Amino acid sequence: MQVLVRDNNVDQALRVLKKKMQREGVFREMKARRSYEKPSEKRNREAAEAVRRARKLARKQAVREGLIAAPKKKPLPARGRPADAFSAPAPAAEAK
Predict the structure, then answer these.
(1) What pLDDT, on the 0 to 100 scale, is given for residue 70?
(2) Residue 70: which H helix or E strand, with range?
(3) How far apart are CA 77 and CA 81, in angstroms?
(4) Cβ contacts of 16 within 8 Å, gap of 6 or more
(5) Angle at CA 19, nearest 5°, toward 13 and 20?
């Protein structure tokens, strides 16, 4: 896995690396290898994951076909400014 560091911005490169590792399932694999998993537990876990994937796929298909309503999207907060920056400006001081 390779990540380019641009303009000596190591923090940004580290974020990109972590995101890539998350997508690839590296963290899940590390957690699974911490302790031994019995074969029966592995079968049960994999079966549960398959059921979850099948339900998710069926839900997406139903949304595409219009059988059920799409879930509401959460509004994303603005980046770079605190949340209270969107509130009304403070009233100006009264002139004497």
Answers:
(1) 85
(2) none
(3) 9
(4) 3
(5) 90
Q: Using 70 as the pLDDT threshold, list the residues of the chain that sit under it.
A: 80-96
Predicted TM-score (pTM) above 0.70: no
pLDDT recorded at residue 2? 87
Q: What is the pLDDT of residue 62?
A: 94
**Alpha-carbon span 96 to 87, nearest angstrom:** 27
Cβ 3 vs Cβ 23: under 8 Å: no
- HSE at residue 5, side-chain half, CA atoms within 13 A, is 5
- CB burial of 5-18 (b: ≥16 within 10 Å; e: otherwise) equals eeeeeeeeeeeeee
Decide if 1 contacts 24 (C-beta within 8 A). yes
Match 């997406």 to its residue by tokens.
Answer: 60
- Residue 86 and residue 78 in contact, taking contact as beta carbons nearer than 8 Å: yes
Q: Which amino acid is at 10?
A: V
Q: What angle do CA 19, 41, 23 make, to 5 degrees?
A: 10
